[in-house]
Design goal:
binds adenosine-5'-triphosphate; transferase; binds fe (iii) ion; 10 strands; TsaD; 5-stranded mixed beta sheet; binds magnesium ion; 11 helices
Length: about 350
Amino acid sequence: RIVLGIESSCDETAVALVASDRTIRAQRIASQHAEHAPYGGVVPEIAARAHAERLAPMLEAVMDEAGVSLADCDVIAATAGPGLIGGVMVGLVTAKALAMASDTPLMAINHLEGHALSPRLADPELEFPYLLLLVSGGHCQILLVEGVGRYRRLATTIDDALGEAFDKTAKILGLGYPGGPAVEKLAQSGDPRAVPLPRPLAGSSEPHFSFAGLKSAVLRAKESGAHGDADIAASFQQAAVDCLTDRLSHALKRIGSVPNLVVAGGVAANRTIRTALERLASDHAMGFTAPPMALCTDNAAMIAWAGCERLRLGQFDPLDVSARPRWPLDPDAAPVRGAGV
Ligand code: ATP
Ligand code: MG
Ligand code: FE
């Protein structure tokens, strides 16, 4: 069985063909970083237009490379949210047209479900349930993943996502967009103990994350002129690591033991964070899984894979399914002051 996946929720246009035996038959990712760089962030109109221009040739390239036609696909799966609505609609409408033309079932995939299940694409041994740290450009959540479609949110951020904090730190240090990889690189030559920075909510009895205060402290450290940029980057990264491990320890205390700790989302590409989480897992006698770097940041293989997972359960969507700018993975989660989804 083979699933065609389409991703267009932010600034990556991506197409992939993934088989239910976990082979990625072909994939393409076109990043729009160059288009958005002059603005220091993603411009929704530019993103939507770029997706519209690139999607058709990318679909053709992926089908050609895999030697697969639309008629061979069992499902067409597209991100239907959450994300920038213009871009999401370009991908979803394209998927609907392909589904209609080829009489193939459609699946409207939650982008966060793509991230949440991506570790299982790379690791066939990873079983449910697992404790997931989902850290990306728009989200910072701890979820108990009990099965496909069964996500229990244990914590979220009350202000900024961690990827956002990385991007803002990069901006403050003049490193450009997207900031995560640049901050990580600069941090390698800095001292993580050099700059005193806060660990917001660490030790708190509530479960959530907060990164806005950390970002402001980075700005003050830079403006003080007392510290080198590499030391600021390294100290910021260390503060982020300390917040993540503190909040995960808190979650583990609450829910007791889970066999595996898993990290996913763009920030999961960070090596210092991966190493710290691996240590935390081993301290708690848990297994640890992180997807390969290329599956952490946005891609369509994770969307096609979520389609493969749902195909086993026979979960399809009607052709009039709507795009959703906001779409929480756990609709039952209690609302949190200041939090997005
Ligand atoms: P969401 O998935 O929440 O909708 P998104 O799709 O924009 O948001 P992703 O593509 O999953 O986010 O992740 C992008 C984010 O990951 C950016 O904020 C980027 O700075 C961050 N990131 C990427 N690589 C690294 C890294 N090596 N270290 C830290 N952060 C990183
Ligand atoms: Mg992106
Ligand atoms: Fe993402």
